[in-house]
Each structure stands twice: as structure tokens, then as C-alpha cells.
Amino acid sequence: MNSLRFAVIGLGALGGYYGGLLAKSGREVHFLARSNCEAVAANGLRVDSTSGSFHLQRVNVYDRAEKMPKCDVALISLKATDNAALESILPHVLTESGTTLLIQNGLGQEERLPEVALQGSVYAGLGFICAHKAEHNRIIHEDYGTLRLAVYHEAGSAVRRHGGVEGLARELRDAGVDIELEPHFLAARWKKLVWNIPFNGLAVALRSNTAELLRDRNTSVLARQLMLEVIAAGRSVGCAIAGEYAQEMLDGTERMRPYFPSMYHDFEAGRALELEAMYWIPIQRARQAMPQVEMLARQLEYLAARRERDAC
Amino acid sequence: MNSLRFAVIGLGALGGYYGGLLAKSGREVHFLARSNCEAVAANGLRVDSTSGSFHLQRVNVYDRAEKMPKCDVALISLKATDNAALESILPHVLTESGTTLLIQNGLGQEERLPEVALQGSVYAGLGFICAHKAEHNRIIHEDYGTLRLAVYHEAGSAVRRHGGVEGLARELRDAGVDIELEPHFLAARWKKLVWNIPFNGLAVALRSNTAELLRDRNTSVLARQLMLEVIAAGRSVGCAIAGEYAQEMLDGTERMRPYFPSMYHDFEAGRALELEAMYWIPIQRARQAMPQVEMLARQLEYLAARRERDAC
Predict the structure, then answer these.
(1) What is the pTM of this model?
(2) Which residues pair with B138 in a beta bridge?
């Protein structure tokens, strides 16, 4: 167990924070980075965290998967819009029957993983965390941090070798990651959407952070209505989510420092938005209409298309 | 009949265009203006219109209702947000049993008219027109122009004197206004909302004109969905509106020059938005939910409140 070797695919806020904790605790961690490979190789990785800042002087960081060693666990912290690249990345970094931990929001991405991942165990990692990448080699962890794990699919051979989701949870906990286990994969993903759909979308559409949205009566009602649509849609596909879950999420957000969700940063930086994973696939799979969620998705598509056009 | 005297309350795009046509045709018209009284008094009123431009050199324009003569017809072309002023204006300008023509969008405004108006006939005037006030004394009429009249309430004595809605229609037609009569008051108002609700709201929320909204697949779907919600809501209160009416409105808008609806101009200029008349009263009165319309209304409230705050 102690010899588990980790590959972290994508050195953004989540890869940097969770991968950084693993490396700090002495695990062997290999990072695949794109834009920021050189900066991290030269200056290490800095994590400014409310629960303890640290600086990793020397980081195993690569700009191409071909250069990486095979690892027992691939922690995927790309944006869902970049998942097509996994087809060529994972065969280089994942051992046979290796474990894949997909730390992404949205729905429908596990089933699209390349064959090499699906031969091993696949877990969903849902980061209830406020963090962003401030500079190439600096992650700012602002609040929260729990990673909820859910089993998408477990391969017997892998479970025998690494102890399944419990084994992975133990590894991560030992490294200082707050881990919770979610017993129901699909419910875990839908529950995460209950937060992501309103706050990511409204932040972009109205250019506002969580505090601004909750302080205003109209947008706080809207956030709740969107949450209730997502909860009802999740239930329509068999996920038991309590009605009070909306209030819980609102209360948690209320206690958060003012936060611009990831999609806001993506939009401002001109990056692709995770609209398919976070909006369209949930809309398609729900057995019940989500009119306000759909409206938000269409507004976001429009804004993203216009931004694209204006950039040309 | 030829001696009908008109008061035009509010010298914006609609008051200037319809009132301007009445004055141009030789009717006696008295305008109540606020910000632009002086400019119109000094330089007259210019209407640049696709159906024939004209310039009225001398205009009867007043900055206070107290200075105006009593008139047979009060054409109200204020924004609905300014209707509280009618309580003190109308007693000065309206003859006993005089006719009120309320050229405004939205719902629920006729019933709030002051007593003096409700003693006479009250008509709704629905302007299917693209026009805006470019300068203090210059109206630009860009497209369309039909004024649909509907009877809110007719007073017997007034009908005997002026011939009811047909008489008013004739007067306006003689002055060159394209008039259509709507047989059902409430349906007329809801039908107007079918256009106003999507295009005013989306124009503000997404800062876009009609052509931009219709060119994009997502926002054109959204415009249609909003229209269908309004049609269903109108039906829920007994207004027979055909399902094809949405397509008709979309086709008509498609043929229009790119147009920023009035609420867009109001928002940009920092003026109050007609949210109550155009969104909240329809939402309250519908016997059926309009989730997307409500979402749009809440977004608009949020944006308006933020603009207000930022301006302080």
C-alpha cells in the first residue's frame, strides 16, 4: 500500500491541491502539466491554503505523458472539456488494472474513459472545495476541501491489490485530504450538480460571486429554484436526494468566503466551459424537465459563443 | 368629431410618434413633457420615420399639467413606472368623461388609473413599433408602427359623444396611424407580452439586440420557449392565443431591422425598468407557472438592483 505511485493529470487548482498534499506527505507523485510545466519544474509548487500553506521545492512534472512512469493511480484533474486527451495519455501513465480517480464535475465522463482505465477501478472524486490557480505554480485554497469518493466501477484484481475505494480513501486521508465516501455513485454526481449548476451558471451569466448572488433576494431564490430542479431531476433517475439538501448547500455557501466558481474563471480567461458535462448531459438524462437549468445553459452557450466570436 | 382635442402625456418615442402624426394631420395636440419640454418648445419636434419623416415647427408643449387645456382624449405614453404621476396629471388635462388611451406594455395598469379616467372610456393601445427617442426633440421610427386598440371599459356618455373605439380608431387612421382593433382586451395585452417578455428581458440580460438573439440557436430557442410559456399563461386566464402566434412573432422579428427594445435603452440609461407591469403582474395573474419567465424577471431585478448600487 505504501508503494502506491500517483499520476496527477492536470496541474490546475484541484490537481495542485490534492496532488500537492499527496506529494507533501511523501507519496511518489508525477504531475502532467501543460501551460505551467516549466514554471513548476523551475520553482516548485506553492499551495497557499487556509488549512496550512506549503511549498514543494522539487516536483516531478512533465509536459508529455510519454515521459512519465506508469502509476498505480491516475488522479484526473483536467477540465471535462479536455477529456479527449485521456485516450492518448492514460495508456502511458496507468499500470495494468490501475486505478482512475476522476476529479471532475458533471455527468457522463466515466463511461467515456479509455479502455485502459475501465479495465481497472474507476472512482469519482467530487471536490467540495474553493480553490483556484493564481499563478503558474501557485494554488490558492480558499475554503472547504472535502473530497467525496464514489465507486463508478471496481475491478476485482485491482481491489485485491489496493483494497478498493477504502484503500484509496486511506491513502488520501493519510496525506491529509478530508475524505468522505459516497455510497451511491450517481447520487453523488447529482448531489454535486445541485451546487454546481446554479452557482457556476449564475456566476457567469450575472458576473457575480456566491456572496453577491446569495445577498440578493431574487438571485438567492433563483439559486434555490435551480437546486430544486436538479434534485427533482436526480430523483427522476433514481437518486434519493433529500429536499433539505438544497438548504444545506445554501447554508454552506452562505458560510463560504465570497467565491467565483471555476466556470467564472474559465469564462473570464476565455477557456472552454464545461457545459456538456455540467448541463447538457444532466438535461438529457433527467426524466423530468429542468426549464430553468435549460435556460441557464442556453444563456451560457450564447455568452460563450459570443465571447468566441468577439475574440476572433 | 373633428374638434377632438388630444393630450399626449409623455413625449418619448411613442408619444412623439403617434402624437406627432396627430399634430401633423392638423389635430389639436398638447404634449406634456418632462426632460425635453424646453428643447421641443424651442426647436419643434422631428420624427425621422421609414414611412415619411416630418418636422413640426411649433408644438404645444408643457412642463406641467396645470398649464394644459382640458382635452377629449388623453394619450398616455409614459413608462408604466411613472404612472403614479397620473393621479395629479389627469384631472388637469382630461374633460369630464374624456377618453384615455393607455399606450403601454404589460398588465394591470388600466385598473390603477385615477378615477377621472375611469369615469370615461379607457382603451389599451399596443404599439407594434420599433422606435426610440434619439435626442430631446427627435424621434426615430425604425420599423413597423401598428397600434392595436382594445376596449378596457367604455362609458356610455363618452361613446355617444365620440363614437367609442371605432370613433377613436377613425381619428387615428385619418392622421395616418395604422390601427387594428383587438376584440378582447385581456388577450390583446397577453399577446403583446408574448413579444415583450422574451425580447425585452433577453436584450437586457444578454445585452443583445433582436437580430443577435435570433441568429443564435440557443437564444432563439429560448425566445420561443419564453413565448410559449406566455401563451400558455394567457390561456390559463381565458385568453385564446393560437400556438402559431409564437412563430408569427418570431418571423416578424426576423424581418425587423436589428432592434434594441425599450427596456434595453432604459437599462443602459439608468432608468427604472417596467418589471412590475411586464413580468411580475403577469406572473401573479397567470394560473400556471412560467418558470423561465420568472427566472428572467429575477435576473433583471438583480441586474437593475446592482446597477442602482453601482451608481451610488
Answers:
(1) 0.94
(2) B46, B135
